[in-house]
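Lab notes, practical 5.
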Amino acid sequence: MSVHNIVEELERKKFVVSVATASLPAASATGYPAGAEVRDTTTGAVYINTGDESAAVWTKVDAIQSTVTGTDLVDSAGAFVDYAETITIDASTLVAGDIIKIGGLLVIDDYNGADTLDFKVFASAVTLLHTGDMSLVNDNDYLRFDITVRVRTAGSSGKIIWDALAHTNIAGTLALKNCTVEDGVSLAGTTLDMSGDVIIKASGDYSAAHADNESQVLWNVQILRKTV
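Output from the prediction step:
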């Protein structure tokens, strides 16, 4: 590679523009080299030019959506109650082959005696993970979960398949958690309307209502876009 080509490559890699939504460059815009990156300062979205300098093709590359604090679950026992923090995905932009990575921590703030907690993770109305009753016996015990959702078919009659892995840290002891629901691996797929927003959320149900039964969820969610 010539020195000239090396310089061109370095220039291409550092070509980054940050603008508000209203100022995003148009599709097929000229003057943006292949690999140029445009960051939307309004929404946080990132777009990469997968076309060339004569006609840009903007491909969205999603940053991680995450939460660093949570709200304690308020549960009267006997019914599942949603945790306050959720993640919203604009699923109308998804195509077959895209991957949704859903991770998180269920952290115990406080606990009461031998009470148990039943926990679920959803993509809108689809249950992705269901732990069954868990005995959580120390403050800061936690459940970690990682879910990989594959888009088989996009749109209003969308289909997904997924697998999940969860483990607990109870009193300092790590263990794989066998869950009541931990996958939806079927080539036929499970129906999920992806014509608009999909809400990633969690809910919990304590075996007994008590002021010391407190837990919260911390999220990290990312979309990996299909490139080939």
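Observations recorded by the TA: The chain has a mean pLDDT of 87. The two ends are 27 Å apart (CA to CA).
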